[in-house]
Structures are given as C-alpha cells and as structure tokens.
Write a structure and sequence with these properties.
This protein is of the alpha/beta class and about 280 residues long. It is about 45% helix and about 15% strand. The structure holds nicotinamide-adenine-dinucleotide. One of its GO terms (molecular function) is methylenetetrahydrofolate dehydrogenase (NADP+) activity. Pfam families: THF_DHG_CYH, THF_DHG_CYH_C.
Length: about 280
C-alpha cells in the first residue's frame, strides 16, 4: 500500500474539540447552543444515528432535545413539532432524521425548518446560498469531505475533481463545495458514459454511489486523493465503502477508510453547524 490514510476519527475529534471550545466561549457570553433532533418511527439505523448525534452533543457541551414521534404520526403532527421548535429561541438547530415514513412529505418538512436553524443544510434557502457562494449551512457530509481533502495539504484550486453521485445530500453539494474552492469539477452518475476513464483522470475522487467496491484500482489516478463516502453493509455483516480500498490504496496518494472515514466527520460537522447556528442567532 502506498496511500496515506486520512484518519476520519482523528479529524472528527479535532472538529469536535473546536466545537467544544466554542461552546464554552458562547456559554461564557450567556448562550447555550442547543440541537433538537426529531425521530419519527422505530427504524433501527435511524435510532442509532440519532443516539450518536445526542452523544456528540453531550461530548461538545451542546444541549440536545430528542423528540420521538410514532411511525403513524401525521404530517400535520410533525409540522407542528417543527413549528414549535422554530419558534423556540433556546433551540438553535433543528434536524429531522431521514428517511420519514411514507405518509409524510419529506420536502414539506424540510421546507418548514427555518434556514437559520437548518443545520443539515437541506432547506431550499441554504441549498440556494451554497450554489450562490453565500454564507450558509453546508451539508455535513460534503463539508466533512472538504475538510478531509484539506487535511492532506492538497491545494484544491485548479485540480480535476470527479464526484460520483448526484444526490441532493452528498454528490451535488460536494460538487458545489469543490467548485467554490476552484476545482474543475466533473459530476458522474448512473447515466455517465466513460465513467472509469473520467475517474482515472481525477486528482480528487469523491465516491458517493452506494455500491460496495464500485471504484476499482484502475479508476484511481496515481497520487489521487480518494474520498469514500459510501456505507454499504456487506453479506459479511461489515461496512464497506464504494471504493475497493486495497486496490485503490496501491495507487492513491491519500485515501479515507470505511469505517472511520467520512462517517465520523459527518457527525462532527453537525456539531460545527450547531455551534455556528447558535453564534449567528446571538449575533456574535
Ligand atoms: P443516493 O442513492 O441518493 O445517490 C447515489 C448516486 O449514485 C445517484 O446520484 C446515482 O446517479 C449514482 N449512481 C448509482 N449507480 C451508479 C452507477 N452505476 N454509476 C454511476 N453512478 C451511479 O445515495 P446518497 O444518499 O448520495 O449516498 C451515497 C452513499 O453514501 C451511500 O452508500 C450512503 O449510505 C452513503 N452516505 C454516507 C454518509 C456518511 O456520513 N458517510 C452520508 C450520506 C450518505
């Protein structure tokens, strides 16, 4: 293996430490950052994610509220919860854990979160601001990817970045953030032709496909920075990324592992965004 590992756990710990220090400074000025997380239903994976977020808050000194609604909750009930949190000045961030049960219109719920409390960065105003290069809440996963690339000392400007995947939560915002840093960005997706060839020309390769081992060794340019966003549960019960790690690590300059890569950074960036929301709300 020639690639150096980008240690997501260590980087995430540093981001959380930064957040904790900011929380302490805000508390000294009478502001207690608070994140509210709404979980609808009993989805086991969602329960794990929400528990993780609440634990992260405790670790950073951020207050948290966990609101649980039954799987049968109506859209009106969920919107009422969001409205109550939106009106509550002691709550700085609102996060509705996705996916939502089928009877609820996800878009309508995200739209109901005030942009200044939208710490996931999914509301239309934040999406638009990101696109326009204005201050916003950057979605946690792609923001974490950028921090990981920066941690390698790579100057993103002028590099050819290839993003595989065009979802609203990962691929598209990752492409926007890379563009904002002056990368030349190619977005690949399920209809892309010559995908392997495009990837093989990438100085920075971000894989957000959702298919284990999708990125093979021959798709990696020697010395490239490879960011593996994928989380795929294998038949072996273990988590696998979108990248064939062993093969890609032979060629890449830097690579993120799965687990222990983008996942922890995503969680840490939520803490960063929550602190930012509290600071902005207080006008500090
Ligand atoms: P998604 O299913 O919404 O999007 C997948 C994208 O991959 C689509 O845009 C699609 O066009 C593209 N794609 C699918 N098949 C393809 C193919 N054969 N060739 C090229 N492109 C193809 O998924 P998502 O929400 O963006 O998540 C992607 C992966 O990242 C998943 O494994 C998910 O679990 C993971 N994820 C991880 C984190 C984290 O914190 N690490 C956060 C979010 C998502």
């Amino acid at each position: 293996m020639s690639a150096q590992i980008i240690d997501g756990k260590a980087l995430a710990a540093a981001v959380k430490q930064e957040a904790a220090a900011e929380v302490a400074a805000l508390k000294a000025q009478g502001v207690a950052p608070c994140l509210a997380v709404i979980l609808v239903g009993e989805d086991p994976a969602s329960q794990v994610y929400v528990r993780g977020k609440i634990n992260d808050c405790a670790e950073c000194g951020i207050l948290s509220r966990s609101i649980r609604l039954p799987a049968t909750a109506t859209q009106a009930e969920l919107l009422a919860q969001v409205a109550a949190l939106a009106a509550d000045d002691t709550v700085h961030g609102i996060l509705v854990q996705l996916p939502l049960p089928a009877q609820i219109d996800e878009r309508a719920v995200i739209d109901a979160i005030p942009p200044q409390k939208d710490v996931d960065g999914f509301s239309p105003v934040n999406v638009g601001r990101l696109q326009a290069g204005e201050p916003c809440f950057q979605p946690c996963t792609p923001a974490g990817c950028i921090r990981m690339i920066e941690s390698t000392g790579t100057n993103i400007a002028g590099k050819h970045a290839v993003v595989i995947g065009r979802s609203n939560i990962v691929g598209k915002p990752a492409a926007m953030l890379l563009l904002a840093q002056n990368a030349t960005v190619t977005v690949c997706h399920s209809k892309t032709q010559n995908l392997a060839q495009l990837c093989a020309g990438a100085d920075i390769l971000v894989a957000a496909v959702g298919r284990a081992g999708f990125v093979t060794g021959d798709m990696v340019k020697p010395g490239a920075v490879v960011i593996d966003v994928g989380i795929n549960r294998g038949a072996d019960g273990k988590l696998h990324g979108d990248v064939d790690f062993a093969a890609a690590a032979q060629k890449a300059g830097w690579i993120t592992p799965v687990p222990g890569g983008v996942g922890p950074m995503t969680r840490a960036m939520l803490m960063h965004n929550t602190v930012l929301a509290a600071r902005r709300a207080a006008g500090l």
